[in-house]
Design a protein that fits this description.
alpha/beta, Rossmann fold, eight-stranded mixed beta sheet, 9 helices, 8 strands, 34% helix, methyltransferase, SAM-dependent_MTases_sf, Methyltransf_11, 23S_rRNA_MeTrnsfrase_RlmA, transferase
């Protein structure tokens, strides 16, 4: 017999959610990865860069895992727990971490970088990115696409407008900022949540899926979800991702 609703929720409610490491979910949830392999492609571009900026780096996990960093590598982050993690991880790799809020302007001089990157940015500041890139420099990013994990969001919130984060809009905004888009790819990817604790942990960590989520506020729907998973198996959702590369 599986663990009870209360046991699963209590465990997930107390788990730390700092950083951008999802290993707590191993065996309890899964998500397909985009076919393009962002980390590998980022590593290739980083190896050829002289000065690189990673915006909204999270806990620095991705950069810290790359084989090579640019001779000058800088990362920004705004959330204090992630900032401390990123600084600790990236200092050993010779990279600087700058505390920055989630509003432009980027605190760097014009033309400072030949590579600017971001994975899953909350918002893309196209005009500022174009400003800090050198002529011929590249912006390379994997982003959340439209209607990502909407099956889960709508389970708690009801029907939602899924028009935001359209890759075509990203292209239009990049071009309006003076950049030339050289690559654009998009995929929808299967996700499975195998117990309600995995859902609680995920929603505590990925806070924009169900804004204002808390166990107490959503307790009734969490019980419904637990019963659904017990009866029918894993809850299935789909993440949406797109890759965009643009040149100054």
């Amino acid at each position: 017999m599986g663990r009870s609703f209360d046991e699963l929720v209590a465990e997930a409610r107390s788990a730390p959610v700092d950083g951008w490491d999802f290993s707590w979910l191993d065996g309890r949830a899964s998500e397909e990865r985009p076919s393009w392999g962002y980390a590998r492609l980022l590593g290739d571009r980083m190896a050829g860069a002289s000065a690189a900026l990673d915006i909204q780096t999270g806990g620095g996990e991705l950069l810290a895992g790359l084989p090579t960093l640019a001779p000058v590598t800088v990362a920004t982050e705004s959330w204090p727990p992630n900032l401390a993690l990123a600084a600790a991880r990236l200092r050993a790799r010779g990279a600087a971490v700058v505390a920055d809020d989630e509003e432009p302007r980027l605190p760097f001089r014009t033309g400072a970088f030949d590579l600017v990157t971001s994975r899953h940015p909350v918002e893309t500041w196209w005009t500022e990115i174009a400003r800090v890139l050198r002529p011929g420099g590249v912006y390379f990013s994997q982003q959340v696409g439209p209607r990502s994990v909407f099956e889960l969001a709508e389970f708690f919130l009801g029907p939602l407008d899924g028009s935001a984060r359209d890759p075509r809009q990203a292209v239009a905004e990049a071009e309006a900022a003076g950049l030339t888009v050289t690559d654009l790819r998009a995929e929808r990817l299967r996700m499975e949540f195998r117990d309600v604790g995995a859902v609680v942990y995920f929603l505590r960590k990925v806070i924009w899926i169900v804004p204002g989520f808390s166990v107490d506020r959503h307790l009734a729907r969490l019980r419904d979800l637990h019963e659904l998973i017990e009866a029918e198996g894993p809850f299935v959702a789909h993440s949406s991702r797109f890759l965009i590369e643009a040149r100054a």
